[in-house]
Design goal:
heterodimer; A: alpha+beta; Arc Repressor Mutant, subunit A; Glutaredoxin; five-stranded mixed β-sheet; 7 helices; about 10% strand; elongated; B: alpha/beta; Ubiquitin-like (UB roll); de novo design (two linked rop proteins); four-stranded parallel β-sheet; 16 helices; 8 strands; about 40% helix; globular; binds flavin mononucleotide; binds iron/sulfur cluster; binds FE2/S2 (inorganic) cluster
């Protein structure tokens, strides 16, 4: 498998930052996933060779980190924090609303492949609770109206 | 983007550049940026360490270990390279302060890492950010690149003859990786399984070399200490608790937010004055004053100074600075369940008391919350937690156990309200579940 130019460049720079090659592994896996949508078999094999590990050793690392995945999910990744600070401010209702509105359960993708819904642990937005992440974007001080608007907006954008 | 708040009682040290455009290097320089580093370059390493010792700065990551003392443990001579590692994994529920530092004042973290490196004789510093903080990785990478471009980082910094490199590293989602030894494993490209101690990281750390690990807020305080003097910083706080702290106020408050207040600020004032009190119609039930890992305190106990030595007097800890304010509309069994679910999910599974203990506690709490509990479950829960305490490989086990013991001790009646088929009194239509 060939990496994109961007990934190639990242790898080339990062590998000079550490005394061992495998130190690039965790961030590199995330950058690869961002491009490919998931960590495919080919991608795992490629990075494993580059950092001189077996595919299995790389998989072993992948399975530890909650953001890394070997299967693709929806285009818009809705990660709703339901941890305590958010719980106190109605995160459960927000999560239920998302389930209903999207018609999916926890860790499921909508049939059109657009939305993925996931309940997550604290994302570091506790003082602006309830909060979620949409891909890498924080959406904070959530209300039912804000969720409606967000989902409708994305649906509309996709129809265009 | 996180929102900024302000209150007249605040003493802005670490947050003094928030909202002032300091992500731009020129702006940072206008606001006294990199002056502390230049001053440190003229100081002997021991003088830097002594200044930090005099400041009474204690680790802002949670444990409150004196930063100057930690640095002094690093051996002067080492056959292996030494490192500084900034902990920006910030994943303790209730905590959202390091994020603001990276977002608004990225160079202050870089400067802090560099001063720490000068103090211990390290040539390389890493800034580890949790994977979810991608926008902050971008901000930090730009800040580092800008500083390299001016010759502030790299070879012969400020013409001093000193070489120093700084790199930004992203995680990929894991609370346990915030634990210092797991953090090193993760940076080395492995699963975040903690290491046995001793040896401590200051002696054997990254790739076997002596390593200083500090929280981002601790490191961002360092340039201010070097410029203003350790004594000045110490005086801002209470004895043995120097300086100020970013307190993350969350819960059903009128003005939740992150406030920088002197160490030892009164918790009651923090809730009712600084954060504007509870939202209308809700009353205070309890406070978890230092992130989800610390014990709960009751409304009778909140007239307390927020520092590392005062909170233990009411049976809790200062922890990470996350002040979680619980209102009377919240079921404490539900709260306990959510906290336990977190630790069960984040337990790395390496040692049995934590892996099994968190799982059993979670199962018990799921059952209790849904009305399937029996009287002995309450003591069982406490017994499980007490048997984890001090018996786990890393402090995550204690962090999972201590809160539960405190909830049962201080709010036993709420657990009793959930027994023998009685569903949660706070739920609209709860169904008993058996697990
Ligand atoms: C389970 C666990 C998670 C932790 N998470 C963090 C974290 O996210 N950020 C942090 O700075 N310290 C965290 N710590 C504390 C670190 O182990 C370490 O004590 C700290 O980074 C040292 O820096 P300080 O002395 O400046 O506080 C965690 C500890 C444990 C046991
Ligand atoms: S206490 Fe928990 S997190 Fe720590 S080593 Fe044991 S299983 Fe892992
Ligand atoms: S608890 Fe939800 S962001 Fe921290």
């Amino acid at each position: 498998m060939k990496f994109s130019d961007q990934l190639e460049q990242r790898f080339a720079t990062m590998v000079t930052h550490y005394p061992t090659k495998r130190s690039v592994l965790v961030p590199m896996l995330l950058y690869i996933q961002d491009e490919l949508g998931s960590l495919t078999e080919e991608a795992i094999h490629e990075i494993a060779q580059r950092v001189e590990l077996s595919d299995l050793e790389v998989r072993n690392v992948i399975s530890y980190y909650s953001m890394l995945r070997t299967r693709a999910v929806g285009k818009y990744n809705f990660q709703i924090c339901t941890n305590v600070s958010c719980l106190l401010r109605g995160a459960e209702d927000i999560f239920e609303q998302c389930k209903k509105k999207l018609g999916v359960g926890n860790k499921q993708t909508t049939s059109d492949g657009l939305f993925y819904l996931e309940e997550v642990e604290c994302i570091g937005a506790c003082s602006w609770a309830p909060a979620m992440m949409m891909n890498y974007e924080f959406v904070e001080n959530l209300t039912a109206a804000k969720i409606d608007e967000l989902i409708e907006g994305l649906k509309k954008k996709e129809q265009q | 983007m996180a929102y900024l708040v302000s209150h007249p009682d605040e003493v802005k040290v670490v947050s003094k550049r928030f909202g002032k455009g300091a992500t731009s290097l020129d702006r940072y320089l206008e606001l006294d940026g990199y002056k502390a580093l230049q001053k440190a370059l003229t100081m002997q390493p021991d003088a830097i360490i002594n200044e930090v010792k005099a400041s009474n700065l204690r680790g802002r990551g949670g444990a409150g270990f004196p930063t100057g003392m930690k640095w002094s443990f690093v051996p002067k001579q080492s056959p292996k390279p030494k490192y500084v590692l900034c902990n920006g994994d910030e994943s303790e529920p209730g905590t959202c302060k390091d994020r603001l530092i990276f977002e608004h004042d990225p160079h202050s973290v870089i400067e802090g890492v560099m001063i720490a490196a000068l103090a211990v004789g390290a040539k390389t510093g890493y800034i580890y950010l949790r994977g979810e903080y991608r926008y902050l990785v971008q901000i930090m990478e730009k800040a580092v690149a800008d500083a390299y471009a001016r010759g502030f980082i790299g070879k012969n910094i400020f013409g001093s003859g000193v070489d120093l490199d700084i790199f930004v590293h992203s995680g990929a989602g894991a609370y346990e990786v915030g634990e210092e030894s797991a953090l090193m494993e993760s940076l080395e490209g492995k699963r975040g399984i903690p290491r046995i101690r001793p040896p401590f990281p200051a002696v054997v750390g990254l790739w076997g070399g002596p390593t200083v690990i500090n929280n981002a807020e601790s490191l961002a305080s360092v340039p201010h200490i070097i410029l203003g003097g350790g004594e000045w910083f110490a005086k801002l706080g209470t004895p043995k608790n120097g300086g100020t702290r970013l307190f993350c106020m969350s819960g059903e408050l009128e003005r939740p937010g992150v406030y920088e207040l002197p160490m030892g600020y009164n918790l009651k004032k923090m809730i009712y004055d600084v954060a504007g009190g509870m939202v209308k119609g809700k009353k205070l039930k309890g406070v978890v004053p230092g992130g989800s890992s610390v014990q709960i305190i009751t409304p009778d106990e909140i007239d307390v100074a927020m520092d590392f030595d005062s909170l233990p007097k009411v049976g809790s800890m200062l922890g990470s600075g996350g002040v979680i304010v619980i209102d009377d509309h919240t079921c404490l069994v539900k709260f306990a369940l959510r906290v336990t679910q977190f630790y069960q999910h984040e337990s790395c599974g390496w040692c049995i008391p934590c892996r099994e203990g968190t799982d059993w506690m979670k199962k018990t709490l799921v059952r209790m919350h849904s009305g399937g509990g029996v009287a002995k479950d309450i003591d069982n829960l406490k017994y499980l937690a007490e048997n984890m305490l001090g018996r786990t490989f890393c402090p995550l086990g204690d962090a999972a156990a201590m809160p539960i013991i405190s909830y049962v001790q201080k709010f036993r009646s709420e657990f009793e309200d959930h027994l023998n088929g009685k569903p949660c009194p706070y739920e609209k239509a709860a169904q008993p579940v058996m697990v």
